[in-house]
Amino acid sequence: MSTEKQLFTISVYTENNIGLLNRISAIFQRRHINIESLNISPSEIEGVAKFTIVVNMIEENVKKIIGQIEKQVEVIKAYYHDLDEIIYQISGLFKIKSELLFEERQIQNIIKESNARIVTVNKEFFVLEKSGKKEEIIELYNELSPFGIMQYTRSGLIAISKDEMKISTLLETYNN
Amino acid sequence: METQTIKNTDKATKTTEYISGSEAIVRCLIEEGVKILYGYPGGAIMPVYDELYKYQDKIHHVLTRHEQGATHSAQGYARISGEVGVAMATSGPGATNLITGIADAQIDSTPMVCITGQVFSHLLGSDAFQETDIVGISTPVTKWNCQVTKAEDIPEAIAKAFYIARSGRPGPVLIDITKDAQIEKFDFSYEKCTKVRSYVPIPKTVEGSLEAAAKLINEAKKPLVVWGQGVILGKAEEAFKAVIEKAGIPAAWTILGASAIPTKHPLNVGMVGMHGNYAPNVLTNECDVLIAIGMRFDDRVTGKLDEYATQAKVIHFEIDPAEVNKNVKADVAVLGDAKATLEAVLPLINSNSHSEWHQKFKDLYAIEYEKVIKDDLHPTKEGLTMGEVLKEINIQSKGNAAIVSDVGQHQMIACRYAEFNKTKSNITSGGLGTMGFGLPAAIGAKMAAPEREVVSISGDGGYQMTIQELGTIFQQKAAVKVVVLNNDFLGMVRQWQQLFFEKRYASTEMINPNFVAIAEGYYIKARKVTKREDLAEAVKEMMESKEAYFLEVCVEKEGNVFPMIPTGASVSDVRLE
């Protein structure tokens, strides 16, 4: 087991209840662990929420954190993965002055080459959306930045594991 | 995150009654077998108190003098009975005053259900009068908590609360109920909770782990058992005794494991940890197999982790998977309920005696006796020692009393020297180290087991943190025996100041009041002892009293508790002086 810090993605399947975010985030807060990104969404199972949490830690401590998370009454199961074991995406949104779209030819090239998507255009501004790895979104940010970005935001990481996570089977055993 | 779901009970077709949320709360408690609850009324919980008035023939409410007292009393009740203790408070300050007791129950795995009133749901988040986010505040110190804003959700929430509090590794649960939910009427029916999806109270024992554990035990030349409260919580005392007796293994206890087997059991080699006994601490670093049962390798037990039992193979019998490998790496983890796993491992282990190994414990005990115990229990110098008070209590109680201790030097002395014949007899605040725990916990313990002698032992510091609960003792006629070992110091801090801060006694000397007068002010029979020749007779008088009794013993001012493992030192570096 590596003793170097590295990025791990923690997937937590939970009941969809109020207060659980507080309970789970407190586990990290108490141990002074910074959450790099956090996303909560419905999962493939009705009524089951999925937390995707990215942390920079050594593996041994991730295992301990998983234990503490799974100990929570409303947590169904928690897993951790390194980045090679998952397929993941991050989304970035960029708000840019509309006049640049017409006056700066290079911007059009950047949009085309980066595979970014124009979400909306109006007289004042247009919005670009780019999904991919964090580095790709940062690269686009760096390219657009000299022209002036009015607003920029980036989502948390969302991930799907390459290995099967047998939550439905697990829930069936719970129900029996 | 969407709305709260508490759909975890299997709804059978049941007759319903149209009643208020507050009546439902009381009825739910009765359904769960609650006969006594501890609490303090206030605006946001008044409808429930009104119902308690109606149901007072079925459920006895104990008015403590502070909400903290209510939680500690509920803890004392739970610890001696093995049942869930219940505490109730109003919103805002009432609720926040419960927090210390809840945190204490969480770290010591005590089953407790706390019910708090909350402002009307339309006022939530508006900084209304006596509004606090008690669910948010209590989250890190509860096993589970929830807020109920609709009367119809009350029965399922309470059913779930009791199930979670008492199952698996027990713990405290808090339910916050808004005032409108208390007033609102609904069709009431009650179904006990037997399962919560996503919650596995007892983990499955990993296949082969019992055999692997047995193999290590059978091959061990110098095995040592360290047991904790898991043995008591899991009702595994008999199975535990059978295992150590068959394998002939010396067994040492953590502070919360005390009393699971009698103090005088030949295999009982004493307490481990910072103020534990010399032999089990030193020999932890000599054993070849360390068998941890229902304990969590707290830092007060292990000292410096890098040097803790590094030579030993470690077997960990544990109900909470998160405890395995948390502090000490286990070579074999036997997950599950202590009773079930110990019963299962019993036929797999060989009979043994390990007599040479036992002799090592006896030799080290002889050293500890000469250097520490003799002077503690049979002092020849002038000042009274805490140890000799405990010795007198042992003589008078014949080891049958439940000892409820507070936190500090007296606690370590009480745990080191109190003699126990029965399980669930050592009630103390272990993990949180809560000064003020002792007196109210003793009230709960006495009410849960009125047939038992309950002796509360406090220092002058902790006693004054919850001294107002003398009022509860008086009002409830709880025949608790209250002993204060008074050294006019915050003794444990002073000891550290002496040893590690060059005797700079910063803010540890206490100018104390007339404790006897205070007890008598609460109409409690009281006596003060300052001389050795009066001690035995005073303890006898206290123990023979049919009512509550207060005994102050003025002990030597600068007495220290040894052995001691200084913070950050290895267990084998235990100091005897």
TrEMBL record, chain A:
Q: What is its EC number?
A: 2.2.1.6
Q: Which EC main class describes this enzyme?
A: transferase
Which keywords describe this protein according to UniProt?
Answer: Amino-acid biosynthesis, Branched-chain amino acid biosynthesis, Transferase
Metabolic or biological pathway? Amino-acid biosynthesis; L-valine biosynthesis; L-valine from pyruvate: step 1/4; Amino-acid biosynthesis; L-isoleucine biosynthesis; L-isoleucine from 2-oxobutanoate: step 1/4
The record's Pfam families line, in alphabetical order, gives: ACT_AHAS_ss, ALS_ss_C
Q: Which domain of life is it from?
A: Bacteria
Listed under GO biological process in this entry are:
isoleucine biosynthetic process; L-valine biosynthetic process
Alphabetical list of InterPro entries matching this protein: Acetalactate_synth_ssu, Acetolactate_synth/TF_NikR_C, Acetolactate_synth_ssu_C, ACT-like_dom_sf, ACT_dom, AHAS_ACT, AHAS_small-like_ACT
- GO MF terms on file? acetolactate synthase activity; acetolactate synthase regulator activity
Cite the ACT domain residue spans from the record: 9-83
Q: Does the keyword RNA-binding apply?
A: no
> What is the catalytic activity of this protein?
2 pyruvate + H(+) = (2S)-2-acetolactate + CO2
The record's NCBIfam families line, in alphabetical order, gives: acolac_sm
The UniProt entry's sequence similarity note says:
Belongs to the acetolactate synthase small subunit family.
Query: What name does the UniProt record give this protein?
Result: Acetolactate synthase small subunit
Q: Which organism is it from?
A: Polaribacter pectinis
Automatic annotation (TrEMBL), chain B:
**Species assigned in the record:** Polaribacter pectinis
Keyword Magnesium in record: yes
Q: Under what name is this protein listed?
A: Acetolactate synthase
What is the E.C. number? 2.2.1.6
Catalytic reaction(s) noted: 2 pyruvate + H(+) = (2S)-2-acetolactate + CO2
**Family according to the record:** Belongs to the TPP enzyme family.
Superkingdom of this entry's organism? Bacteria
Q: Name one GO biological process term.
A: isoleucine biosynthetic process
Annotated ranges, domain Thiamine pyrophosphate enzyme central: 210-344
Cofactor(s) essential for the protein: thiamine diphosphate; Mg(2+)
A Gene Ontology molecular function term for this protein is: thiamine pyrophosphate binding
Cofactor: how bound? Binds 1 thiamine pyrophosphate per subunit.
Keyword Magnesium in the entry? The reply is yes
Q: Which NCBIfam families match?
A: acolac_lg
- PROSITE patterns from the xrefs? TPP_ENZYMES
Q: Record's Gene Ontology CC terms?
A: acetolactate synthase complex
The protein's enzyme class:
transferase
